[in-house]
User: Which sequence fits this backbone?
């Protein structure tokens, strides 16, 4: 498998992963997110789950949970994306099919421009099956860092 380095089979340790194959995301994940708003000096938090479900040749991503923002009561939050593979690059699209960003195998980071703000993302898979995404958002309207940790949901 491209992008993988196996630990000792005798120890049963998880694989070290630079970027997982698309099918390795399939299933249910616990999601914990911290949002540091640099302008407001506040911190938000999201806790919930994400499900990657097969759809066509890719995966549908559905995230649901509770979002806490300073000065506001918690509220339900949801995100939907489509993940697909093309030329060994994972493409993350909005659920309406518009391109969002890519996860290349050699350097899992990308930039998305949403006029007038810039969204830089870096993924870390070094502790697979725990993985992280870090978004640094900057521009005239936004300035925040959002760090999300994904953990495989334990079987029930």
Assistant:
């Amino acid at each position: 498998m491209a992008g993988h380095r196996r630990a000792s089979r005798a120890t049963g340790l998880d694989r070290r992963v630079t970027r997982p194959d698309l099918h390795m995301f399939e299933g249910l994940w616990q999601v914990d997110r911290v949002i540091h708003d640099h302008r407001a000096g506040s911190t938000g938090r999201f806790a919930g789950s994400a499900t990657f479900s097969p759809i066509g040749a890719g995966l549908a991503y559905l995230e649901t949970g509770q979002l806490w923002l300073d000065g506001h009561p918690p509220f339900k939050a949801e995100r939907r994306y489509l993940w697909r593979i093309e030329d060994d690059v994972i493409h993350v699209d909005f659920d309406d099919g518009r391109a969002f960003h890519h996860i290349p195998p050699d350097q899992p980071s990308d930039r998305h421009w949403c006029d007038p703000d810039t969204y830089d993302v870096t993924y870390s898979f070094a502790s697979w099956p725990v993985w992280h995404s870090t978004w640094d958002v900057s521009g005239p309207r936004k300035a925040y860092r959002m760090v999300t940790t994904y953990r495989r949901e334990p079987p029930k």
Notes: DSSP finds no helices and twelve strands in the chain.
